[in-house]
Specification:
Blueprint (H helix, E strand, L loop, with lengths): L5 H31 L3 H24 L7 H29 L7 H19 L4 H20 L4 H36 L9 H18 L3 E8 L2 H8 L1 H19 L4 E6 L2 E5 L6 H19 L3 E3 L2 E3 L3 E8 L6 H17 L4 E4 L2 H17 L8 E10 L4 E12 L3 E3 L1 H10 L3 H21 L6 E5 L2 H5 L3 H12 L2 H6 E6 L7 H15 L2 E7 L6 H6 L4 E4 L1 H4 L6 H17 L2 E4 L5 H9 L4 E2 L10 H10 L5
Parallel strand pairs: 6-7, 9-11, 11-12, 12-13, 13-14, 14-15, 15-16
Antiparallel strand pairs: 1-3, 1-6, 2-3, 4-5, 8-9, 8-16, 9-10
């Protein structure tokens, strides 16, 4: 089943009213001249035939809708439109035959020139489809050539030969124009590097596939393939190596996918594959998952790009194309969501988009939408969780952000903070948190509520923002004196270590040097921590992740981990904060092993500003 390029169908469709107009109007001239010369009947009969053909042509014109038609419908429409054009131009050959012998009235001259004109019109308007044009030119020009031959004069033989030459010129001209248009359309619809379909062309194809599925109640699948860590290869080895790698990936995709699938490059290192149709959805999913795993294995084989031997993996998101949905972009979005789920789970895998993912994305979008107006609507507020020393005296607190929305209720920070990071909202949110926290710290100090340290969480996006150091400096100057500044601790998580280490160290050193603010490594032990990082990073404190504290009384492994962290901190001269202290047993273990600072529900949950003040005033005690 061969479907022509979109431009061919659209060109043939666009010419219908032009061809009808160029047939009907000159046809009136034949009727008028026939009436003048008393030979009007052939023109009237011919005009009636052309009128019937025109009505058919207009019905074909109205029935065409490329975006909603299936492949079979397009092929059927093309067959009909080919017949229409052949019959319409054959009618001009007929009028030439009817009036070519009218030498006394001189109408044979008009018949000859209209035949030549029809040939020029056909080659000019229908050059985009040679299979339509070739029989039309033969129908028009061969009778003319034969006409001159039958005159049996030398000049007529020359004219007969010229007619054939003229037909050849028209063929050549149409062929050249078609080739140029075909080249232009190919460049517009294909990726220059990989020679695969590009995004725009693929979406057109996908939409037509979706229409077919809806009409036949079939299923198909879409695979979105994203290369893992391709940017690293591109940046480190150069774009020439990266381009060759993409070309090789395209070849492997075509080799595995065969002719039954349509493959495109959406951009960068992202490829997409559209499968064939299936009657049964389970078989469709099974085939899609099997093909995805074959692709994964093929893409992981070594790439020999001189002088390098490279290895890649891929993350593949799968979307089931069902006949219930008619929007092509929806399926690309679903596959994209599934692909990013693979990324979050460690890459090098396949995930099928499902209802669970859909609900999570829907929830994500709701949060994202409402988060943009959270500050403006005064929905963001701060809580403070006390930190105590080993004598159980309050010596500080951690500032924790909270969000309560009228529709969503209380949204946990571990839900909305990552979303704020993704949508670029973390910088204004972080600025609000810092300003509110500094105001509160200043107020408490003025009221005699003295703390030794005041910890605030800082995100990676905040830390790397171009104006972060200046913004913090401005707020320190506005709210804090030198003594208070020295008590501020910025908490960063271990995930920051996945970034450019030199840049991280540079920013942290600037803040320490110019603002006298210290740093704490939060959630220590859960991610990228290593001795080399502890040596390089300008930190003053480690916070043991609550996951190691929660099972201290039961799990000897957790006990060993905590003891190791405490010993490591002592070696590097760092203080240690234990998060998640919830029982007397936790406290006794940490006290016995000289943990510096304790934080958790055993002492207090996070409190709003007023409750924390009350806690400070009335609960300075030892347990």
């Amino acid at each position: 089943m061969f479907v022509k390029h979109k431009y061919v169908y659209e060109s043939l469709h666009k010419q219908i009213p032009i061809i009808i107009g160029l047939s009907m109007l000159p046809g009136l001239g034949y009727i008028f001249l026939g009436w003048l010369n008393h030979i009007v009947l052939p023109a009237l009969i011919w005009y009636g035939l052309v009128s019937l053909l025109s009505i058919w042509g207009l019905s074909l014109y109205k029935s065409f809708d490329y975006d909603s038609m299936t492949s079979l419908e397009l092929i059927s429409w093309h067959n009909y439109i080919s017949k229409f054009y052949l019959l319409m131009f054959s009618s001009w050959a007929l009028i030439f035959i009817l009036y070519g012998g009218e030498t006394e009235s001189k109408m044979h001259y008009i018949a000859i020139f209209t035949e030549l004109g029809a040939a020029v019109v056909a080659s000019t308007l229908l050059f985009s489809d040679r299979k339509v044009l070739i029989p039309i030119l033969l129908v028009l020009m061969l009778p003319l050539s034969a006409y001159f031959l039958l005159i049996h004069e030398f000049y007529a033989y020359v004219l007969s030969l010229f007619s054939l030459v003229f037909m050849g010129v028209l063929f050549y001209s149409a062929h050249s124009s078609d080739k140029l248009l075909e080249k232009t359309q190919y460049q517009a619809s294909h990726d220059q590097l990989t020679k695969l379909f590009n995004r725009h062309s693929f979406i057109d194809t996908l939409q037509r596939k979706v229409n077919e599925l809806e009409k036949h109640q079939n299923y198909s699948y879409l695979l979105l393939i994203d290369l893992d860590h391709f940017k690293t290869v591109n940046d480190s080895l150069g774009h020439d190596v990266g381009d060759k790698l993409l070309e090789e990936v395209a070849l492997r995709l075509k080799d595995i996918a065969k002719d039954e699938n349509i493959i495109a490059r959406l951009g960068g290192d992202e490829f997409v594959l559209l499968g064939k149709g299936f009657i049964d959805s389970d078989k469709c999913i099974s085939h899609a998952m099997r093909l995805s795993n074959e692709l994964l294995q093929s893409l992981k084989n070594v790439y020999s790009i001189e002088p390098h031997n490279l290895y890649l993996s891929a993350s593949i998101g799968v979307s089931l194309l069902s006949p219930q949905c008619l929007n092509a972009n929806t399926f690309i979005k679903e596959a994209d969501i599934a692909m990013y789920e693979v990324k979050e789970k460690g890459r090098d895998g396949v995930i099928l988009f499902n209802d669970k993912l859909s609900k999570r994305v829907e929830s994500h979008l709701k949060i994202e939408h409402r988060l943009h107006s959270a500050l403006k609507n005064n929905e963001i507020y701060l809580h403070y969780q006390p930190q105590l020393n080993i004598k159980q005296e309050i010596i500080g607190c951690e500032v924790l952000v909270r969000w309560k929305n009228e529709d969503l209720g209380v949204v946990p920070p571990d839900v909305f903070i990552p979303i704020a990071e993704q949508i670029g909202y973390m910088v204004p949110l972080g600025e609000f948190i810092l300003e509110e926290a500094f105001k509160t710290f200043k107020k408490w100090n003025e009221e005699g509520l003295i703390l030794e340290q005041f910890s605030i969480n800082i995100s990676m996006r905040q830390l790397f923002h171009y104006s972060f150091v200046l913004d913090v400096g401005r707020m320190c100057q506005k709210y804090l004196n030198e003594d208070l500044q020295k008590k501020i601790i910025f908490e960063v998580t271990e995930t920051i270590l996945a970034e450019d280490m030199n840049k991280v160290v540079s920013v942290m050193n600037s803040i320490r040097k110019y603002l006298d603010i210290r740093f704490s490594m939060d959630d220590f032990g859960t991610g990228y921590s290593s001795l080399s990082y502890l040596q390089k990073l300008p930190i003053n404190e480690l916070k043991i992740d609550r996951s190691f504290i929660s099972e201290l009384s039961k799990d000897k492994n957790d006990q060993e981990i905590v003891l190791t962290i405490l010993a490591m901190a002592k070696t590097f001269g760092l203080k240690v904060v234990a998060e998640g202290v919830e029982t007397r047993e936790h406290y006794e273990f940490l006290k016995k092993n000289n943990c510096d600072i304790l934080q958790g529900y055993y002492y207090s949950k996070p409190l709003d500003k007023d409750d924390f003040e009350s806690y400070m005033r009335h609960n300075r005690f030892s347990l």
